[in-house]
Every structure is written in structure tokens, then in C-alpha cells.
Write a structure and sequence with these properties.
about 15% strand; 2 domains; alpha/beta; 17 helices; D-Maltodextrin-Binding Protein, domain 2; about 425 residues; 3-stranded antiparallel sheet; 10-stranded mixed sheet
Length: about 425
């Protein structure tokens, strides 16, 4: 034990006081490393490789055990398939960045950290609420490191021209804003839109927006039953008193694509909403904080600002959502113990905070988010603190489900309640019920 003491003390200090001595003992014992190194560790992720390289090089100067750690940026569109194939062939990474909505789907690829090493209470006290999908029944699937909140982007010039000095705080304000800002040409085609809501195909983040509306309305998408099974929760169950949260959220979302409504503001014939906002043709856009650099590069002259997501009036609780990335140790990795140790080092207060700043993405740690910050960083941090998430069994399959729920409503193929009921049934099939 004396051999481990210096490294153990160093990691305890850098992790900001979290009692993870059990993790260190567990990981080093399995990894067989000494006090100076954890061996070669390969990390895969979809975030910027340049930022990682700079921070890792600096961190290795004070943490020599990171000297053989490398990070490789992979294509986000093929990441899941590439990871599966690489792990099957034995060429995969020791650690990989896992997003919280993929936690259930990819849990079988992960070497889970047992609660005897890091307790559920320690996890919840250290990391944000939206990171909870990384908690499994037998331990921690991934160690949270970054969080990317869903926020409201607003075109200051377009809103000012309609008499608005601020972005809307409540969803019902959009009705009047849409009537004042949305413009049509002589043939009735939309040429300027207040907000991109109502469709799926050309509304960036449509699934996440609708899911957030459901959560804000007091609903759930999935939930555990009394037997500990994950079940669909979009539609009320027999014998359960429940408001039609999903139905009310879906109705609100799709109304903005209904030409018969006074607040009609979006059509599936329009460009993709992120690009339309960047072009100055949409006043309000809902996207992730990480999208800001793309919007700025696309149109450096666009006068836009950030605001929290609107809430449902009167709204006693603020509910937002976020993408959360965690570092997961591969079950097929050659050095699982070293990988676990590296994961905790990288999410420590000093290294994790530096990585967060370099990438421009907020930390998933409560203590870092609670530190004083300036400008956009302070705003993004506050949105992460209010972020929640839901347990998604398979993001690709549920995306199809959400699309069908929206398009069945906008096309008139199904009534809102029936579209929700069908989505709930399909969600049950995805869950294997």
C-alpha cells in the first residue's frame, strides 16, 4: 500500500475532495501499474482533438501517469458503428466518450465501476442531475466530464423590429411573437419565421426539443415500474392518475406548422432550421450551446444572443435538458484498471476544468459549475445546473419514434392523443415489452 500512497494522495487532491480511494485501489490493482504510470491508454471521442492534445500535453507535465494517454477524434455520424466494430476486432479504445442518451444502449461495451468504489451518493453529489443515466443498478457506466445545454438563440434585430427587447421567458409568449414576426409572400409561402417548431425533418434538435417540452409539462418518456423494469411513460397507464403531458407538449410543438393557426411559423419546405437562423431568416432557434461557434462562423454579422429555454407558465421549477458526455472504460480494453484511473484524473477539478474551457463546453461537475464565471461561460453553466435527462433505450430507434409522432400529427394521419399512444406502444417494443 505504501507504493500507492503518493499517487493516491495526488489523485484525491486533484479530484477535489471526492472520496475515491476505493477507485484508485481497484483500478491500479487490476491495471498492474506502478506509482508513475498507468500504461498506454487510447481514448476515442467526437470532440475536438486539438483542444484535447494541448491540455493532455500540459497535464502530463504535472501528472506523468498521463504521458502515454492519447486521444483520437472520430466522425460523430459513424462513431457508434465504428466503436462496435473496433471493440469486436480487439482494436478499440481503452476509454471512449459516451453521451448519456447512449448509456443504456452501450452499457454492455463498458467495464462498469462498482458502487463499492464510488457510491451512488458520491456520484450524485459530484455531478449534475442530467448525468444520472450513467448510473446503472450495479455501478457507474461512465464518469461525467462535459455537459452541453439546450438553449434559446434569438435574433436581436428581428425581435427589436417587432418591439421586443428580450427573448421570451415563457412558451405562450411565442404565440404573439409569431404573429408579429412571421412573414409570407403573395403566394402564402413563409419567407421570415419567428421560430422553427412543428416539423421534424428540418427542425434541428426536434426530438430533444419535444422531449424537453414533455419533461417541462410534468411528464416522463420512460420510467421504472415497481418491478424495476424500464417501461414507456408517454401515455398514462391504466389505474394511474396522470395529466396528458406528452399530448399537450406535442400539440404545442406541432401547432407552429399548422397553416390554419394565427401563429403558423414553420413549414417542412423551409431550409434546415440551424442554417435558416444563421442566415437571418428565423428569429428564435433552439439549439445546443456548442452550436454557437458554427452559427458565428456561418454569419459573423448576425446580431444574436443567448437566453434560457422558455418555461411553462407559471413554472415553479426550471427544467432544461443537456447532452452529457462521460468517460467509459471499454470492457474489451487491454488496460481497464489504467483506463478507470485516467478517467478520474481527467474529470478532476484542475484537468477537467481546463478541458472544459479549452473545448468551450461546460463541466459536468457541480463544484466547477458553482465557481464564478464571466459572460457566456456563466450563462452556459447556469443552464447546465438546471438540466435534466431521461433514460433513452436506443437513440436511433427513438428518433424514428419521435419523428413518426410529430409527422402523424402534422399530416393529420392521427389525432394528437392517438399519435402519443402509438409512440408509447412503439417505445414498449423498443424496450422489449
Amino acid at each position: 500500500m505504501k507504493k500507492l500512497s503518493m499517487f493516491q494522495l495526488s489523485l484525491l487532491v486533484t479530484f477535489g475532495g471526492l472520496a475515491i480511494a476505493g477507485v484508485l485501489i481497484f483500478s491500479l490493482a487490476i491495471g498492474g501499474g506502478d506509482s508513475n504510470t498507468v500504461g498506454a491508454i487510447k481514448i476515442w471521442g467526437t470532440l475536438d482533438q486539438g483542444a484535447f492534445a494541448v491540455v493532455m500535453r500540459q497535464a502530463a507535465e504535472t501528472h506523468p501517469e498521463l504521458s502515454q494517454v492519447t486521444y483520437e477524434q472520430r466522425d460523430a455520424s459513424t462513431f457508434d458503428a465504428d466503436l462496435t466494430n473496433a471493440l469486436a476486432s480487439g482494436t478499440g479504445p481503452d476509454l471512449f466518450l459516451l453521451r448519456q442518451d447512449y448509456a443504456l444502449k452501450n452499457a454492455g461495451k463498458v467495464s462498469t465501476i462498482p458502487f463499492s468504489a464510488i457510491s451512488k451518493a458520491q456520484f450524485e453529489n459530484t455531478f449534475i442531475e442530467a448525468a444520472n443515466p450513467f448510473l446503472a443498478q450495479n455501478g457507474v457506466i461512465a464518469v461525467p466530464i462535459f455537459a452541453d445545454p439546450l438553449i434559446l438563440y434569438w435574433n436581436k434585430d428581428m425581435l427589436a423590429s417587432a418591439g421586443y427587447a428580450q427573448a421570451p421567458k415563457y412558451w405562450d409568449e411565442l404565440y404573439q411573437i409569431a404573429q408579429k414576426i412571421t412573414k409570407k409572400n403573395d403566394s402564402g409561402t413563409l419567407v421570415k419565421s419567428a421560430i422553427a417548431l412543428g416539423e421534424y425533418k428540418n427542425v434541428t434538435n426536434a426530438k430533444d426539443i419535444l422531449a424537453t417540452l414533455i419533461l417541462q409539462a410534468g411528464g416522463d418518456i420512460t420510467a421504472y415500474d415497481n418491478a424495476g423494469r424500464l417501461i414507456p411513460a408517454l401515455a398514462p397507464r391504466a389505474g394511474v392518475t396522470s395529466v396528458q403531458s406528452a399530448a399537450s407538449a406535442l400539440r404545442f410543438f406541432t401547432e407552429f406548422a399548422d397553416p390554419s393557426k394565427n401563429h403558423y411559423s414553420w413549414s417542412r419546405s423551409l431550409p434546415e432550421s440551424q442554417k435558416a437562423f444563421a442566415a437571418g431568416d428565423v428569429a428564435i432557434y433552439i439549439g445546443y450551446a456548442s452550436e454557437a461557434p458554427f452559427i458565428t462562423r456561418t454569419n459573423p454579422n448576425l446580431n444574436f444572443g443567448f437566453a434560457p429555454l422558455p418555461q411553462i407558465r407559471p413554472g415553479s421549477n426550471t427544467i432544461n435538458t443537456a447532452h452529457v458526455w462521460g468517460l467509459a472504460a471499454s470492457r474489451a480494453g487491454k488496460n481497464p484498471g489504467g483506463a478507470t484511473t485516467v478517467a478520474f484524473l481527467l474529470v478532476s477539478a484542475d484537468i477537467g476544468g481546463t478541458l472544459s474551457s479549452a473545448l468551450g463546453i461546460p463541466s459536468a461537475r457541480r463544484d466547477i459549475l458553482n465557481k464564478p464565471a464571466q459572460g457566456n461561460e456563466d450563462f452556459f453553466n447556469k443552464q447546465v445546473i438546471a438540466a435534466y435527462s431521461w433514460l433513452d433505450p436506443d437513440p436511433e430507434k427513438t428518433a424514428v419514434l419521435f419523428r413518426a409522432m410529430i409527422e402523424n400529427t402534422t399530416s393529420g394521419a392521427l389525432l394528437v392523443a392517438d399519435a402519443v399512444q402509438r409512440a408509447d406502444q412503439e417505445l414498449g417494443q423498443i424496450l422489449g415489452l
